[in-house]
Amino acid sequence: MARNRKSAKAAGSSFERLVADYLAAHVDDRIDRRVKTGSKDRGDISGLRHMGGRVVVECKNTSKISLGTWATEAEIERGNDDALAGIVAHKRHGKGRPEDQWITMTLGDLVALLTGSRGHLEESNDE
Question: Contact, 48 vs 23, CB < 8 A?
């Protein structure tokens, strides 16, 4: 059965809930799905922090992989939230457990998470 807009939205909401509940259970119980904010979207999950900085999570439940588009979206949302990093959680089809889902991020976001700072990223962009 092909997806329509309603079923796609339901699948997306269900995946966001799966990710938020898993992170809340294993990282911090204040993590939850974020209320939609329109043009200044700040990601799908709120309350995730690392080394004192917010981490934006953009969730995707689709069989068509579009990493470049998703990474751009996560970066825009990271900026909107003034967050440390933006990551993409995407559905690993055929796997229903939350811990089996994929996480994708740029190398810059990985370094920001590992060091707790984006300052080095802005400096390296000046070259």
Answer: yes
Interatomic CA distance for residues 57 and 15, integer angstroms: 12
Q: Establish how many alpha carbons lie within 13 A of residue 15's alpha carbon, considering only the half-sphere containing its beta carbon.
A: 24
Distance, in Å, from the CA atom of 62 to the CA atom of 76, rounded to the nearest integer, reads 20
Identify the helix (H) or strand (E) that includes residue 89: strand 85-90
5-124 has which fold? Trna Endonuclease; Chain: A, domain 1 (3.40.1350)
Indicate the pTM of the whole model.
Answer: 0.88
Mean of the per-residue pLDDT values of the chain:
91
d(CA 79, CA 20): 21
Other Cβ atoms closer than 10 A to 62: 15
